[in-house]
Structure formats: structure tokens, C-alpha cells
User: Which sequence fits this backbone?
């Protein structure tokens, strides 16, 4: 039996990249986006400037679209921004691919962002009432119209700050005019953004792995609520908001960031390995359990499984093999063809599993249906026992900041008891990392000891910002139900 393990993962947000002052800006941006491909696989786009703006936007992967010896000719210029997309607001279509562009009274302006605006519907409605004509269904376009309508602010920097002050949610953005490259983060820094340097050129990226991929040197993280403006005069820093406590999204450590990236000074790989240590201590070492082998669910479960094996003293083995050369399934013409292609992505390594008591380590459990398939596959390969371990706490609440996650009633940990989840997965035991264990893996302290340093709302329901659009939607539902009950 072979199955696909990616269908039940939280979908990545997006990735952004920017370059200022390099003659091969488009090539560097394509390389940077390739390093950020894991953050969005539906579409990609690059905008450059050389006296005028040049744009390319495509459905599909970076390597399928931004290659070839003519790339620098197609997208000339020493300044560029780029974007990888997985849609969280707006369906996948050419008109919803970033960067997006607008002609302003001061000249051209292009922008791309990672994250989600939690009041986008409300702001969009207010803008359309004032005459704005939207060309896409993305929340990103809100920035374009807010900048355009902020005519009382003479400078682009002031206009963009004014726009940022009118939106809510989590975002990291890159933008550019004919003279400036701009990077900015939301007030609490939910989404990451990094600054790097390559000779005399400057680089902005969602993750340090993308800075490394172009041979640049990491300088620092853009701070929460900060705007970085890069021009011929150098790098300037502006505070877009009054100082607030930083609360970056904890899911970057759990799943989204590439293992070779660094966040808040922490190696993502090391954090995930320590998550495995904590998971073993909390769910295995203190219990009367025995096992023969630790097997990761590839690829995201590998670092935690290594840590689990180290802490438990059990051997680490690749009991599931992933085929990295399976083509994209959406291009196949029939559903049967897509299913056949998907089924080739992962397969059991029978000699590792047959007759063994197996500890399966994955990064998380979302709906649970894929985890059930994994367990079934491992048992069919001959495993005598299966002990499933999640290297994150139970996901009980949806995300509204750029992670495409199911509604709460589809999250298995929100609707089902621990014992019932174990029964539905047909496992011999089930264990989740605790919220405090996750915090200890990151910063060595419990959640309370670290003053709730991270946005952990998917596990705790403690949302760090207002959820204006969601609250208005729920209020409208309640009014409708009340009306129906009264009539």
C-alpha cells in the first residue's frame, strides 16, 4: 500500500523575496523563490524595474517558469520583488498571482505579501464604497488602494505606513517603487521577514534559507512593526506602529519554515529535534511502553523523530520512503491519473517495519484521515504495534493569519477525545507534545515562564489580534439564526 501524506497538512502561507542594487536581480529573486518553494506551490511571480516596471506571473512552480538563459532579458533591472503563493484569500487564478502593481500619482508601485488581513473584507467594502475598483480577490490588493487613496500623505513611505495602520492581521510584505525597495512586518511580527546583504546589494526574504541560497549574508530580522526602506541613500528604518510585544507564529517552528532556516535566533532544525526530545520524555519514557524502532513520517517529521530516538535510546530508521521525483499531480488530465500519481509519493520500507513495534513520529495531526492511512500502510507492511506521536500539541483552533487550515469542526482534536482519536487511528498508543513542551523546545521555558512569547492560537485559542471579518461573519450568522427562530 502506498499513500499521500501531504493532503492533510496545514497549507503553507506564502514566501516573499526582494533585491536592491544587483544587476541580476531577477535571477537572484528566482533563486530565492526556489528556496522558498515550500511556502507556496500554486503560483509565482516576479516584478523588476529598469526605468520601467517588468512583470511575469505564472501558475505552477518557480523552476518550471523562471529558468532559461533569457530570464535576465525578460526581467531586466537591478531591483526586484517576488512571491510564491498558496491561496488563503482569493482563488488560484492569474489575476490573483503576486506581486500586484498599480500606477500612482507618484509613479509605479508593486507589492507582495505573506500572511492574511483579518479585516480585509471590511476594508475592501469601505474602499469600494469610495470608488475603488478591485481587479483581484486577494487581500493584498487592499494595500494598493489604501496607498492610492492616502493622498494627504505626500511620501510613499508615509502612505504605506498609513495603509498598514488601517489593516489588521499578520503579514510580512515587500514592495517597490522606481527608487525604493521596502520591507515591513505587522505590529506583533506574526509573519517572518529577514534582511541580508550581498556585496553592495541588499536582500529581503521570508526565511534565512533563501538568503543563504543566493550567497548573501544574513544581517538581521526585520522587527515587528518595522518598515525597512532601501534606496541609493542606504537602509532606513521606520516604526509603523507604537512599540508592541512581539508574538511570532509558533507554527513556523512546527511545520512551515525550512529546517535549515533560523528564526528569532533559533535553528529550526534544532528546535524540531528538541521537540522530539520533549515528546519522548512526555509520552514515552515515563510510560510502561516498549518499542523497537522510531520511524518518521517524511519529510517534516524527520527532525523530531531523530530527537525522539536520541532521547528514548531507540534506533532511528527510515521506515517510509518518499519519492521526490513524482511530478505535479494537478497537470494530469483525469482524476484517476491524479490518484495514481499521488499514490507513488510514499511507500513503506518493509524490512524496517515487518514484525516491529514502531513509534511513528509526525509533525502534527490535523483532520486525522491521512494519519489513519499512514498507520494502515505501516501495519500492512507487517508492523506488530504502532505507537503514533505528534511533535506538536493537539490543533484545536483554526488560523486566520495566512495558514490554510480546516474549520474548527474538521479539526479532529477539537471534536474528538484523545482515546477516540487513538481508536479511530487504530494505534496501540497515541501521544501529543504539550504546549509547555513545545515552548521548552524553543526557548527552554514553559509558556507562562516565557510570557506567552509566541502566537500559539491553533493550540490554545489565544488569538493575538482582533478577528474583525470572522467576528462580523459569526455575528451575521447569529442574526440570521435568530431571525429564522423568530419566524
Assistant:
Amino acid at each position: 500500500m502506498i499513500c499521500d501524506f501531504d493532503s492533510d497538512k496545514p497549507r503553507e502561507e506564502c514566501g516573499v523575496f526582494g533585491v536592491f542594487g544587483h544587476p541580476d536581480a531577477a535571477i537572484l529573486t528566482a533563486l530565492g523563490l526556489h528556496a522558498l518553494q515550500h511556502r507556496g506551490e500554486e503560483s509565482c511571480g516576479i516584478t523588476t524595474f529598469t526605468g520601467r516596471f517588468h512583470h511575469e506571473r505564472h501558475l505552477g512552480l518557480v523552476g518550471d517558469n523562471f529558468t532559461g538563459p533569457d530570464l535576465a532579458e525578460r526581467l531586466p533591472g537591478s531591483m526586484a520583488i517576488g512571491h510564491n503563493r498558496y491561496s488563503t484569500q482569493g482563488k488560484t487564478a492569474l489575476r490573483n498571482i503576486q506581486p500586484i502593481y498599480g500606477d500612482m500619482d507618484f509613479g509605479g508601485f508593486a507589492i507582495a505579501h505573506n500572511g492574511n488581513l483579518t479585516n480585509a473584507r471590511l476594508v475592501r467594502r469601505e474602499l469600494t464604497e469610495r470608488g475603488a475598483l478591485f481587479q483581484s480577490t486577494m487581500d493584498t490588493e487592499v494595500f494598493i488602494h489604501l496607498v492610492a487613496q492616502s493622498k494627504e500623505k505626500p511620501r510613499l513611505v508615509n502612505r504605506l505606513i498609513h495603509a498598514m495602520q488601517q489593516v489588521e492581521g499578520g503579514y510580512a510584505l515587500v514592495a517597490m517603487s522606481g527608487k525604493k525597495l521596502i520591507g515591513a512586518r505587522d505590529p506583533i511580527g506574526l509573519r517572518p521577514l529577514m534582511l541580508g546583504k550581498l556585496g553592495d546589494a541588499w536582500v529581503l526574504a521570508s526565511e534565512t534559507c533563501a538568503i543563504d541560497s543566493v550567497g548573501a549574508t544574513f544581517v538581521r530580522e526585520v522587527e515587528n512593526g518595522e518598515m525597512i526602506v532601501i534606496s541609493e541613500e542606504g537602509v532606513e528604518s521606520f516604526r509603523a506602529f507604537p512599540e508592541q510585544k512581539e508574538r511570532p507564529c509558533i507554527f513556523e517552528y512546527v511545520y512551515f519554515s525550512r529546517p535549515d532556516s533560523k528564526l528569532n535566533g533559533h535553528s529550526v532544525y534544532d528546535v524540531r529535534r528538541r521537540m522530539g526530545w520533549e515528546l519522548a520524555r512526555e509520552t514515552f519514557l515515563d510510560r510502561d511502553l516498549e518499542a523497537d524502532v522510531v520511524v518518521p513520517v517524511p519529510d517534516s517529521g524527520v527532525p523530531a523523530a531523530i530527537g525522539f530516538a536520541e532521547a528514548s535510546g531507540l534506533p532511528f530508521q527510515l521506515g517510509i520512503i518518499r519519492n521526490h521525483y513524482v511530478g505535479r499531480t494537478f497537470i494530469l488530465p483525469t482524476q484517476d491519473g491524479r490518484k495514481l500519481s499521488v499514490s507513488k509519493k510514499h511507500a513503506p520500507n518493509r524490512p524496517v517495519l515487518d514484525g516491529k513495534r514502531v513509534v511513528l513520529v509526525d509533525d502534527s495531526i490535523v483532520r486525522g484521515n491521512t494519519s489513519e492511512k499512514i498507520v494502515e500502510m505501516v501495519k500492512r507492511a507487517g508492523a506488530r504495534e504502532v505507537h503514533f506521536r505528534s511533535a506538536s500539541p493537539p490543533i484545536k483552533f483554526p488560523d486566520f493569519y495566512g495558514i490554510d487550515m480546516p474549520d474548527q469542526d474538521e479539526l479532529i482534536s477539537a471534536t474528538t477525545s484523545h482515546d477516540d482519536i487513538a481508536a479511530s487511528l487504530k494505534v496501540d498508543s497515541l501521544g501529543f507534545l504539550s504546549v509547555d513542551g513545545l515552548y521548552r523546545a524553543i526557548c527552554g521555558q514553559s509558556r507562562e515562564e516565557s510570557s506567552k512569547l509566541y502566537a500559539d492560537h491553533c493550540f490554545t485559542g489565544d488569538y493575538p489580534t482582533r478577528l474583525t471579518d470572522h467576528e462580523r461573519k459569526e455575528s451575521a450568522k447569529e442574526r440570521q439564526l435568530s431571525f429564522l427562530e423568530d419566524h
